[in-house]
Design goal:
Chain lengths: 521, 197
């Protein structure tokens, strides 16, 4: 196909007189000798002639030169030149003007950004309320926060706010869904391990309440899926932990030593008091805001009194309308897809670093001032307290003194100090006295029963057992099987004794006969 | 003396043909603005025809031709005399035509009614004027093939000149001219008998 085309192209070029003299000669001879060549040549020649003859030249334009002269004179005009360059001139002059403006107002862009930022921040700062109120956090949760550094955001969905530290000592907070977060250790166990009196128990509850009030304005949330965390939270968690341990040490030194790692002790209660005072001083109004589309640090003043007032009014309104306030007490932080793009590389030490995936949002906050105090690591402490409270797993009370048992049962009541539940226990205890007493008629028709000096008559034990099974259990399932087992054991022992006897006799017989010689082959 | 003058007159146009454009351009570069009018006079019809052949329509021919000469006026002082003036001029012309066709194409993308190449050509066979039929057939050939064909058959350019004007190889020009003729042959096949007669 290509070759045929090349030949045809050459015929076309031949017609146009564009072949070399040598090729022209060769083509002329081919055209004269080949009919196919000739036909192709004639067809192309016919097209060439038709093209040349048919395509009319365009009519002359009489005013062309006049128009062009006018255009050119306009072109020469400076004004026209300016018009031509006007877009570039406008852009250039605007750029220069902007540069001059920025030279004299260097902070204008930064201020604009700041304004915009504060507008966005203002939007997310609206209606912030304490997480402890919004997520209905209890005293137990606050206690767990002191020991485990975690606060529930949404208990139903297992969403927690976790506090910690990174390798550089920077504060880290995470919002994470924990599937299995049942802590073995809780406030009740702690009280039990230290054997706190009801009064001491109340005191520790009040300590927790004081800290709960202090922590309240440090974690704020709102309906715009915003979580605002004050870096003071880390200090308060530490102070609360120290305060609780200090109280525990003062309450029951012996049990405290059992529970704490070996050798741990606060030098003095002043040490903890100093820490708490220091923590209160450190508190400032800088919050880290975690919002659906941004994470930023901003100053924010939370008005606790105003919030309390509003809350009171709301409760009154709800009471008037006979509605429950519980529906206000729910918060779940939703990880927005926008936030997934927010992951930041580690830049300078002063910047907030954020790591986000579908289940977790972790924020590293640099330069948090946390006062120093020597505190035990809870990882080791937890196991010790766990050991100390093991015996209290089922019953966390001391049995009352049982009066001399005249009957085969006794009763007592138990009431927990922080619970409205009352437990009644009624025990039926089978003992020899009760059994014998109950069956005294059977054994002694005189009714003069004395268990200590009681003498069994023939088969009286057998009868007694039968009566025992009748009163306290199924003879077939308990006594029957035991008796059978005992009898079969007796039989086996008898058999064994007999076999041993036989073996002894056989050995004695062998000793009396001479041994056969062993001949080696 | 007379015979010498006659001799000079005989040779003069030939010498002028070779150097005419260059000398006029030189005059213009030296500051003689009137030399530009001469250039326009000499080449305007060729330029207009090339534009007409490229566009296949009279519309806009003069506007494009004006743009071509304004462009020439602006850039003539930078002419380096490395190629023929006409090659340079036609190259500017063809580039302007390409720009125009590109703009038309872009405009057609956004226009409600798309340009129809067959528009107005349905009754060609009914037409009795053969030259009109052929002209319309030529317009059906794509501009890329049509222009070298017309530069050759109408304007009488050599393959070399066409290649320089279009900025391509001579082999490409040769191939395009042949393909243009083949296309014409196919388009005009139904009228073969009529055209022969």
């Amino acid at each position: 196909m290509t070759k045929i085309h090349t030949v045809s192209e050459n015929i076309s070029a031949f017609i146009d007189g564009e072949l070399s003299p040598k090729d022209i000669q060769s083509f002329e001879s081919k055209i004269n000798s080949s009919l196919e060549f000739k036909n192709e040549h004639d067809a192309l020649m016919r097209i060439k002639k038709l093209t040349a003859a048919s395509f009319k030249q365009i009519d002359e334009s009489p005013y062309f030169e006049t128009k062009l002269a006018a255009s050119l004179s306009e072109e020469k005009n400076i004004g026209a030149k300016l018009k031509h360059w006007s877009p570039a001139l406008i852009i250039g002059s605007l750029t220069i003007a902007l540069m001059i403006f920025l030279k004299f107002n260097p902070n204008i862009i930064e201020n604009l950004f700041e304004q915009q930022k504060s507008k966005i921040a203002g939007f997310y700062k609206e209606n912030l309320k304490p997480l402890l109120f919004a997520a209905d956090v209890s005293g137990d949760d606050i206690f767990e926060f002191a020991f485990y550094s975690q606060l529930p955001l949404d208990k139903a969905q297992g969403q927690y706010l976790l506090l910690g530290y990174d390798d550089k000592g920077n504060g880290v907070f995470e919002i994470k869904t924990l599937n299995d977060n049942q802590q073995n250790f809780n406030l009740q166990k702690f009280k039990s391990a230290l054997e706190l009196s009801p009064k001491q128990s109340e005191q520790i509850d009040s300590i927790i309440n004081v800290y709960a009030t202090a922590i309240e304005p440090l974690i704020l949330v709102n309906d715009k899926n915003t979580v605002a965390v004050n870096p003071g939270l880390w200090s308060y968690q530490k102070a609360m932990f120290a305060d609780i341990l200090s109280f525990a040490e003062n309450s029951n030194k012996q049990k405290f030593r059992d529970v704490m790692p070996a050798g741990f002790s606060f030098a003095s209660s002043n040490e903890v008091a100093g820490l708490v005072a220091q923590v209160k001083k450190l508190h400032d109004n800088n919050y880290i805001f975690l919002t659906p589309d941004s994470i930023f640090s901003e100053k924010f003043q939370f008005d606790q009194n105003e919030f309390n007032k509003k809350n009171e009014n709301l409760n009154k309104d709800l009471k008037n309308h006979k509605k429950n306030a519980d529906f206000f007490k729910s918060f779940t932080f939703r990880l927005d897809s926008l936030l997934l793009n927010y992951n930041s590389e580690s830049r300078s030490d002063d910047e907030i670093i954020v790591f986000i995936d579908s289940n977790e949002c972790r924020v590293h906050i640099p330069k948090i001032q946390i006062p120093e105090i020597n505190l035990p690591n809870f990882d080791s402490l937890s196991s010790l307290i766990e050991d100390a409270t093991k015996n209290f797993q089922n019953f966390s009370f001391v049995l009352p003194e049982i009066p001399k048992i005249q009957e085969n049962h006794f009763e007592f009541k138990f009431q927990e100090s922080d619970s409205l539940d009352e437990m009644n226990f009624n025990f039926n205890i089978p003992n020899v006295d009760s059994i014998l007493k109950e069956n005294k008629i059977f054994f002694d028709s005189t009714n003069s029963f004395d268990s200590k000096n009681f003498q069994f008559r023939d088969k009286s034990l057998e009868n007694l057992l039968k009566q025992f099974y009748k009163n306290y259990g199924d003879e077939n399932s308990q006594g029957g099987s035991m008796q059978e087992q005992f009898e079969s054991l007796q039989k086996e022992m008898e058999n064994l004794r007999r076999e041993m006897e036989e073996w002894r006799n056989k050995l004695e017989q062998k000793k009396s006969k001479p041994e056969a010689e062993v001949i080696e082959i | 003396m007379n015979s010498e003058k006659e001799n000079n007159d005989l040779h003069l146009p030939q010498i002028l043909n070779l150097d005419d454009d260059f000398s006029i351009v030189k005059q213009f570069i030296d500051g003689d603005e009137s030399a530009f009018n001469l250039i326009v006079k000499r080449h305007k019809e060729k330029v207009r025809n090339i534009i007409f052949m490229t566009l296949g329509s009279v519309d806009g021919v003069d506007d494009i031709a004006q743009e071509v000469f304004i462009n020439v006026y602006r850039n003539l002082r930078n002419f380096r005399f490395e190629s023929q003036f006409t090659t340079w001029l036609y190259r500017i012309t063809i580039n302007k035509c390409k720009d125009h066709l590109r703009k038309v194409k872009i405009r057609s993308i956004f226009s409600y009614f798309k340009d129809n190449e067959d528009f107005g050509y349905h009754h060609d066979h009914e037409s009795k004027d053969i030259s009109e039929i052929v002209q319309k057939a030529i317009l059906k050939v794509p501009p890329k093939l049509r222009l070298p064909l017309l530069l050759k058959d109408i304007e009488g350019f050599s393959y070399q000149e066409i290649a320089e004007s279009l900025g391509c190889e001579i082999g490409t020009v040769k191939s395009r001219i042949f393909r243009a003729r083949e296309s014409l042959r196919i388009i005009l096949k139904p009228l073969e008998q009529e055209l022969r007669s």
